[in-house]
């Protein structure tokens, strides 16, 4: 029989991906030998969830990774949890109880970032955005805070609902994909649902429950909101490096371009502020975008680099 100290050593190596072939075989043999010893049904799911979150936090808290590498990490974590769960090792025995530290990831102007949360949910931050989350999710809910714009692909877990909090609105989800645009310098907040179902609230007042291809637009000045139907692909085109403008005001268009390229734009003609802009820019460059805006508006537009990153 393997000693507990030796087992812990093998698990640590497995998590760090430093196991030799012989050590992997040793761990696999132990797994096969004790594969029938399961947790009691009433404690199995909760313990596995705690193990998952703590192990995931140890491996990767936040890092730009490809979807392929992310899947490998998830499979690796899941296999390790199965070993630990079958052996009946509690999360408190393997990892001492501690307060979850908060982690903040920021995507500067001109860049995008992918963040893997402790429950394996994937968040893609648009330019000038940030997300704050605990290193592991404890309790009955999973809660994160964000500003700016982000696309969420949330891991399904009906026993632990997922909440996204912006400065004004909260979004509740069990497992789905959706986009939230909540920049502090925008006059509104827009939440667009791609798959699943989400509930949007202001304080304790439920505003709407969205279905796929529905959007909620919340006016921060008046507190009014409107739910409309629209193909969500327009709102998440930025994931594919595409700027889609659909009757955007010139002011909003300039803000989008400034965040996208991390520049400050100056418009030398001031009698075109009431114009709206529609168009699509695929893999845009700054020069091409400015030229197109000048043609559309008749204005002269110049740019300069931002002195320092703006807060989301």
Automatic annotation (TrEMBL):
Extent of the signal sequence: none
Domain annotation Protein FecR C-terminal: ranges: 243-305
Pfam families referenced in this protein's UniProt entry, alphabetically: FecR (PF04773), FecR_C (PF16344)
FecR protein domain: residues covered: 104-198
InterPro entries documented for this protein: FecR, FecR_C, Ferrdict_sens_TM
Database matches in PANTHER family: PERIPLASMIC SIGNAL SENSOR AND SIGMA FACTOR ACTIVATOR FECR-RELATED (PTHR30273), PROTEIN FECR (PTHR30273:SF2)
This protein's name: DUF4974 domain-containing protein
């Amino acid at each position: 029989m393997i000693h507990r100290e030796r087992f812990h050593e093998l698990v640590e190596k497995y998590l760090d991906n430093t196991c030799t072939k012989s050590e992997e075989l040793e761990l696999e043999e132990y797994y096969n030998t004790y594969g029938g010893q399961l947790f009691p049904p009433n404690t199995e799911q909760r313990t596995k969830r705690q193990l998952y979150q703590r192990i995931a936090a140890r491996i990767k808290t936040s890092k730009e990774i490809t979807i392929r590498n992310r899947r490998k990490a998830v499979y690796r974590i899941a296999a390790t949890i199965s070993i630990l769960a079958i052996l009946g090792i509690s999360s408190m025995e393997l990892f001492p109880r501690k307060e979850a530290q908060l982690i903040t990831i920021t995507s500067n102007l001109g860049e995008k970032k992918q963040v893997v949360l402790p429950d394996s949910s994937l968040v893609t931050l648009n330019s000038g955005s940030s997300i704050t989350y605990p290193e592991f999710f404890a309790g009955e809910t999973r809660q994160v805070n964000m500003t700016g714009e982000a696309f969420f692909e949330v891991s399904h877990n009906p026993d632990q609902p997922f909440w996204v909090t912006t400065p004004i609105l909260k979004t509740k989800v069990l497992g789905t994909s959706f986009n939230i645009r909540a920049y502090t310098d925008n006059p509104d907040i827009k939440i667009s649902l791609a798959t699943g179902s989400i509930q949007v609230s202001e304080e304790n007042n439920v505003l709407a429950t969205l279905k796929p291809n529905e959007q909620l637009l919340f006016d921060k000045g008046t507190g009014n909101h409107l739910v409309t139907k629209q193909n969500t692909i327009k709102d998440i085109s930025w994931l594919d490096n595409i700027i889609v403008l659909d009757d955007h005001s010139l002011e909003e268009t300039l803000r989008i371009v400034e965040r996208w390229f991390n520049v400050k734009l100056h418009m030398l003609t001031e009698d075109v502020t009431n114009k709206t802009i529609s168009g699509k820019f695929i893999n845009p460059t700054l020069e091409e975008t400015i030229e197109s805006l000048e043609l559309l508006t008749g204005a002269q537009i110049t740019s300069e680099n931002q002195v320092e990153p703006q807060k989301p």
